[in-house]
Amino acid sequence: MRFAVIVFPGSNCDHDCHHAVSAVLGHPAALLWHKDTDLKGAEVVIVPGGFSYGDHLRAGAISRFSPIMKAVGDHAAEGRPVIGICNGFQILAESSLLPGALHRNTSLRFICENVHIRCETLRTPFTREIEAGERLRMPIAHGDGNYFCDPETLAMLEDNDQIVFRYCDEEGALTAESNPNGSMGSIAGICNREGNVVGLMPHPERACEKALGGDDGLRLFSSVISAAVS
Amino acid sequence: MAKALVYITYKSGVLDPQGLAVKGALTSLGFESVSNVRVGKYIEIELEDAPPDELRALAEKMCKDLLANPVIENYRVELPGDSGHSDPPAPGT
């Protein structure tokens, strides 16, 4: 399974993502500069976290015009797997590859902490090895993670099984206290209608080894690998 | 050289945490008549001179393509010659 990790000016989770899929899982991965125009044979695209273009104007607003994003859009349109993590999720939303927008946390604070998220659907290539309702623990680190969309879009997400992860407490219950940023419906991650493009604010790549305090995040990457094999 | 002025505001249904924080600060300073505060962006664009309609159309295309996110934001374009261009932006829809 060949991975591409896109590198924008200001990406800072690119090497973590590369490490998770190459060193931890043993699959070939390439770091692709955002000025590249093709994915060099990659089967899975990871749009990593960070502060691409310094989050100027809006998080992800400028990155979506990078040359590589045309190739990422084509890859997505072919039904092949794309995952956007944190700033990567913001970029995919700005690119309209995913619906909605991520705006300022209700607390106005940058939040860096471990959270629990509940897996809501197994239909994406990144969640097929996770059990429905299963709770994962991984860190968030963002100032603009407050998921928003209009009520019609929210209903569409619910009806089409496009909500992939929700913030929850340790037992898996959705509570106001366990929603760190004010996201609608406690949404932590969504997918497109087809299910092949996933975006989430939590950082699975930062929870890929026991030494990092947990390896729940590995489940997403091992899922997409087994999805390709079967 | 011409100028286009762009005002970007959150749509009315979108929570504006920055506006709420500023409102709280104003209230605590004794400005008790303040009932709501919305914080937005103001962008000044200098560009080649052109007829006003063209300038306006160009600035609106810039808003659609990049400057505003239609999911959460409204935008309004003004040219310095517009009458009453210092009025506050129209309420969001």
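qc> DSSP finds five helices and eleven strands in chain A.
qc> done
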